[in-house]
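Table S2 (continued). Query chain:
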Amino acid sequence: MGVFDGRVAVVTGAASGIGRATSEQLALAGAAVVAVDLDQDALAWTDGAERIAPLVGDVTSADDNAAAVDLAQQRFGGLDVLVLNAGLASAGSIEALPIETFERVVDVNLRGSVLGLRAAIPALAESDAAAVVMTASVSGLGGDPGMWAYNAAKGGVVNLVRAAAIDLAHRGIRVNGVCPGPTRTGMTSLIENAAPEMYESLRRHIPLQRWGEAGEVASVIRFLASPAASFVTGVLIPVDGGVTASTSQFLPPELAD
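Corresponding output:
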């Protein structure tokens, strides 16, 4: 029997990267999954998956978040796990980045997480093993050059996890988060392809000396959503190859041959 047999999950940002890997891992462990994303074509990977229901939706829409919960209840009979993973990055100086870009980054990363959580609370409260996992970032634990909007939005997600965990614990709903470091996803592929020097510089600052894979982050999300983490709430786990263990004053040693 799978760890998630009989459980139902909603995963946002599920078309690729961490969201897709999480959806696949939960389904393989027995869960039924509603996979939500803006990109209808990119959700084609769910075709033929009996226990995965795709839903085209915008996490910044209260109606679309409600629709995801409704689909989970109507098609699969309830909701036990909510993975709020949809995200949007940006880069630009604090005086030059258009304020509209800042607002969009906050809207997707932070407000979208709030809307998703609010829509799901009544259904999650009916579960005997309710778990919420939000994708924050190591960029929510500190600052990065030229990424102030993303830092601010993900920093909001970090404290949203903590505050929501306290507010919802008495209702039996656990809330945790992951903080990925540099991870190979659709969102980061632009760095790899268009800015190889930056890609290599980021790799060199990771103590494990490599970028992470989406499935490695998904595995931690799966743990936090599972019964194995039944007494864990309000925590944020860096999945970063050791980045947050460092003061960043010195480069870590290179891997031995």
